[in-house]
């Protein structure tokens, strides 16, 4: 089974960054040359960039009418210099919203690891590349770090909201993004592992409760929350703050928490926000059901 500890150990033994250990393993396992794998990941990064641009269109609206135009509002406020936490954070929030809205409007996205959490990793990597003036190759390789974390979570728990709640989707994406940004900013493999653990701990128990069963409310805004969580975890890891609970143990805890959630809180639209009066009214309106 793939584990975070295993990736860190492999990176240490071979003198590689976290991403290097993942890339080497993938090449050896599949027989695909590293150069070809890097090119494939470069294309993924380009799709992420395109979905950001599409999602930032102020005229974009989903078929349900629940999504669209929110990223544009956030980006405009950031460009005016009015947001609370500066341009980096404002752009990251806007991009997380943009990709999630692009998905809700049937645009092309990279599921990272799922469609419901697709805005977090692109927002993290693309904003770090831009704001820190890093070469694109740094972002491409960071996606392998994210992939390694995602594999460890998928093996040790789940990345499915239907199985583990939103902690398994937005939580996993936050952990992947936190580790990716940590490496992009010069963090060690150990720091990447701590960033993953911190991000996951912050969202243990987060339920999956989509209104009308659509990946829109509250999913789009949870992508914004997820990027905030990822950046906070990366900041802590990069300054040397460590998770007292190792990443793989946090993943195991996430699995157990997910198994404990009732079915109503695991993507069935039967509980949480989906069960509120407004959530039920919206569902009736969208689905065309009579009172």
Q: Quaternary status of these chains?
A: single chain
Secondary structure tally, helices: 13
Strand content: under 5%
Shape label: globular
Q: Major sheet: size, sense and barrel closure? A: none
How far is the N terminus from the C terminus? 50 Å
What is the N-to-C succession of helices and strands?
A: HHHHHHHHHHHHH
In total, how many beta strands?
A: 0
Q: What's the pLDDT, averaged over the residues?
A: 97
User: Could you name the ranges where pLDDT drops below 50 across 5 or more consecutive residues?
Assistant: none
Q: Output the radius of gyration.
A: 18 Å
Q: Approximately how much helix is present in the residues?
A: 55-70%
**Could you say which structural class the secondary elements and strand pairing correspond to?**
mainly alpha
